[in-house]
């Protein structure tokens, strides 16, 4: 929950660092785990911002956590029905479009943005950004939340398409660590998920095990 | 096989004692009165052929089309009451368009076929409306799922097919279709065979002039449903007419 004046000052990306990146054969999606109030109080150190909306499709939430949770719940329901009707796992773009429609049609009431990432049979690994107002864009790598401002340089310099799984996972962990190290409203543990054709692997890196960069 | 269901056939909301809904069966009879339409699936696409009877010399050529575009990648050939078919084509178009709007990608053909079948079926439940008097064949091509062919009849049932025929000469057309090895053919080869089948099943005595409508969708059209180009169509019609003459000649030899 942000006080209105804070939100107006910061722009509406609030208290979080989220990212997703494609590699050769899959995608890594991750976030920090801090929820804050007013930029002063940490209301939760271990909140989960990486939500599974289907077997091979995940979403990262940013903005108002209440709004984001409501939207992802609705999208999960919608996607489950859609997938059963189609008798096939849903395409990642279908999941992203459902989220986009929810964000766009309710833009007056909502304050939530998402990164949707996953793997499907047709187009392989994909990452989509659904912004606050309901824009939908596909990108190979993307970062979001207040902490993302501190790592644009790192991501631009270090991301390469078609990395190996280990390289990409390390890239994501490094990026999250750097952001969490500088952004006061991002922190806690790094929650990541690696999604490939064969399955999903959850990776959790506690705060004290994150990589350090010329620190202390 | 035809029987009159006196007393139990006045509305679609009534079953007969032997468990039939006569209104739906009568709707299927309406389809059987219409001229033939066929659709065949080959290894890299779908070809539709329709025998379009020309009832008057005053008609503009190419009017009263029986093959519709439902979406870029989906075509539909119809038989039966044309006005009913046109309204269903519009329903199918809206379904395909809404799907794209809601989910961001092309509608898979099985799903479209299921959705339109449900709509057709809804009109077989109530006495306030009559069932649709048309059957139609839907076909599409997608580079991952390949070619697909589905047929929907007035009862609201849909099946997937390698080849199917609807309309007055559907039995004769089915016999001809079964002779083909469609799984090994390409679209270009199939276009000629489809034209030939339409020419074979056309009854010269009862129905006079007809126009052949040919369309295809497949790898050869990059997944877009289009009318077969004029030169290929002329080649196919020539092949069809020549094959018919050959059969006539061979008949004479046998005598």
Automatic annotation (TrEMBL), chain B:
Residues 8-30 form the Proteasome alpha-type subunits domain. Residues 244-255 have a biased composition (Acidic residues). The keyword Acetylation applies. It is found in: Cytoplasm; Nucleus. The keyword Nucleus applies. InterPro entries: Ntn_hydrolases_N, Proteasome_alpha, Proteasome_alpha-type, Proteasome_asu_N, Proteasome_sua/b. Belongs to the peptidase T1A family. This is Proteasome subunit alpha type. The lineage of its organism: Eukaryota, Metazoa, Chordata, Craniata, Vertebrata.
């Amino acid at each position: 929950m942000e006080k209105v004046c804070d939100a107006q000052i910061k722009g509406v990306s609030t208290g979080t660092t989220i990212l997703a990146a494609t590699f050769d054969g899959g995608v890594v999606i991750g976030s920090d785990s801090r929820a804050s109030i007013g930029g002063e109080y940490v209301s939760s150190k271990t909140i989960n911002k990486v939500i599974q909306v289907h077997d091979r499709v995940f979403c990262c939430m940013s903005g108002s956590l209440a709004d984001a949770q409501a939207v992802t719940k609705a999208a999960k329901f919608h996607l489950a029905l859609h997938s059963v009707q189609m008798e096939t796992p849903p395409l990642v773009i279908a999941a992203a479009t459902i989220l986009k429609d929810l964000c766009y049609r309710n833009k007056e009431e909502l304050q939530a943005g998402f990164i949707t990432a996953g793997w499907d049979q047709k187009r392989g690994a994909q990452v989509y950004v659904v912004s606050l107002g309901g824009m939908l864009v596909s990108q190979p790598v993307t970062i979001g939340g207040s902490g993302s401002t501190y790592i644009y340089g790192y991501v631009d310099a270090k991301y390469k398409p078609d990395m190996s799984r280990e390289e990409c996972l390390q890239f994501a962990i490094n990026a999250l660590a750097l952001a969490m190290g500088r952004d006061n409203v991002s922190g806690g543990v790094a929650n990541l998920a690696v999604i490939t054709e064969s399955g999903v692997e959850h990776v959790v890196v506690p705060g004290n095990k994150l990589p350090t960069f010329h620190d202390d | 096989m035809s029987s009159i269901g006196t007393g139990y056939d006045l509305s679609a909301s009534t079953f007969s004692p032997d468990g039939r809904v006569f209104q739906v069966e009568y709707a299927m009879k309406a389809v059987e009165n219409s001229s033939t339409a066929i659709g065949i699936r080959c290894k890299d696409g779908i070809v539709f052929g329709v025998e379009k009877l020309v009832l008057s010399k005053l008609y503009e050529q190419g009017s009263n089309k029986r093959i519709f575009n439902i979406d870029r990648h989906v075509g539909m050939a119809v038989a039966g009451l044309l006005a009913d078919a046109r309204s269903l084509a519009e329903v199918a178009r809206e379904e395909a368009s809404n799907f794209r709007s809601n989910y961001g990608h092309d509608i898979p053909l099985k799903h479209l076929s299921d959705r339109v079948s449900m709509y057709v079926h809804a009109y077989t439940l109530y006495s306030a409306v009559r069932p649709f008097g048309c059957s139609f064949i839907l076909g599409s091509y997608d580079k991952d799922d390949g070619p697909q062919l589905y047929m929907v009849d007035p009862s609201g049932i849909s099946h997937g097919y390698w080849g199917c025929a609807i309309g007055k000469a559907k039995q004769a057309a089915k016999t001809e279709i079964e002779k083909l090895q469609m799984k090994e053919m390409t679209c270009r080869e199939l276009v000629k065979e489809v034209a030939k089948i339409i020419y074979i099943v056309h009854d010269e005595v009862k129905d006079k002039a007809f126009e052949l409508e040919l369309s295809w969708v497949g790898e050869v059209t990059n997944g877009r449903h289009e009318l077969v180009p004029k030169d290929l169509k002329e080649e196919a019609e020539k092949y069809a007419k020549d094959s018919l003459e050959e059969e006539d000649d061979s008949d004479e030899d046998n005598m």
